[in-house]
Amino acid sequence: MDAEAKNTEGTPEGTPEAWRDIIPDAARRLMTAAVHAFAERGYHATTTRDIAGRAGMSPAALYIHYKTKEELLYQISKVGHRSALDILEEARDAAGTPAERLADAVRSFVRWHAEHHTTARVVQYEIGALAEDHYAEITAMRRASEGAVRAIVEDGVKAGDFDVPDARGTTVAVLSLCIDVARWFNPRGRSTPDEVGSLYAGLALRMVGAG
Amino acid sequence: MDAEAKNTEGTPEGTPEAWRDIIPDAARRLMTAAVHAFAERGYHATTTRDIAGRAGMSPAALYIHYKTKEELLYQISKVGHRSALDILEEARDAAGTPAERLADAVRSFVRWHAEHHTTARVVQYEIGALAEDHYAEITAMRRASEGAVRAIVEDGVKAGDFDVPDARGTTVAVLSLCIDVARWFNPRGRSTPDEVGSLYAGLALRMVGAG
């Protein structure tokens, strides 16, 4: 936490890869503007006018793409959680030993939370502002993410490679460790996303009693 | 994360023990009201009028105790971080082996973040809204917390009880794991604060290669 700086205002970060699919360009620009506005002031303190202004658009132009501020938060959450789920399912389905797959999952998941820490904070901390149906959909994606990691953990136990007294609790802990990187990670700090990813992959293997 | 529910609105939680020292009673009531308001809508979307109203007081009465909204956030952060630091320094200075002291630190720190998850979220997520001098003071307390845990880790390495390739990174990870409990913990969920604390104490010992 030594690495912390007052960077909740959202240090510039690249557009998450998954967002490249969002068309038209104006819709993507609005999502980026919304992420930064939400990260800086919080969801409830942000108006659609703020978001449109940041994107260099009029409020009327915003409404063509998103009917409400909540719709923007929902899209940000959905795309963010989709990326997370893709990373974890890819690791689950990869070739390799359970230890290799767990290390791979943690490394990629940490890297995502470090590189896209502003987006990740919005996705993680503003979840309570979603409408009930959207909240239910996002919660289902979170359960699927947890399921992907738990499948790797259980494969390791079955193979006799891992020693895990509580597979559910340990899976929650491994994911939680990765997610919290978004809170403390500082791109001007001591460690790169890759370095944190490698350290955490090793720690996760210890947590499951591998080797 | 299965344990998650839409509980960012701040499920009622007891007043943190450290707050009992805050006098007069009106000042403590305002702090409690502020924690719940900040947790529900975020710092920037909350007005001092909202906080006074929740505490059943007039805005003028609020100003007797706190000159600004930021002053309230600062007091909440200071008392919260003071509690965290006390817990960790007590564990550092206790009798016992490094493994016992680390397990003790993690168990108490997790329990605090689970029991006071609403306060902990405000303390952890709104830190960027503090004024520069207050931010610096809180950051120093965070560094001291990290130092307390790192001292236990280094004692364990020196004693030959722990095997830790990166003491700084591993200390950050252990603290991060505990802090993130405040994000996902749900008092209506599957595990009690004590159960999470025990599980996490065991995981932390694995992370430092104890035993």
Automatic annotation (TrEMBL), chains A, B:
<protein>
    <submittedName>
        <fullName>TetR/AcrR family transcriptional regulator</fullName>
    </submittedName>
</protein>
<dbReference type="Pfam" id="PF17932">
    <property type="entry name" value="TetR_C_24"/>
</dbReference>
<feature type="domain" description="HTH tetR-type">
    <location>
        <begin position="24"/>
        <end position="84"/>
    </location>
</feature>
<dbReference type="InterPro" id="IPR041490">
    <property type="entry name" value="KstR2_TetR_C"/>
</dbReference>
<dbReference type="InterPro" id="IPR036271">
    <property type="entry name" value="Tet_transcr_reg_TetR-rel_C_sf"/>
</dbReference>
<dbReference type="InterPro" id="IPR001647">
    <property type="entry name" value="HTH_TetR"/>
</dbReference>
<keyword id="KW-0238">DNA-binding</keyword>
<feature type="DNA-binding region" description="H-T-H motif">
    <location>
        <begin position="47"/>
        <end position="66"/>
    </location>
</feature>
<dbReference type="InterPro" id="IPR050109">
    <property type="entry name" value="HTH-type_TetR-like_transc_reg"/>
</dbReference>
<dbReference type="Pfam" id="PF00440">
    <property type="entry name" value="TetR_N"/>
</dbReference>
<dbReference type="InterPro" id="IPR009057">
    <property type="entry name" value="Homeodomain-like_sf"/>
</dbReference>
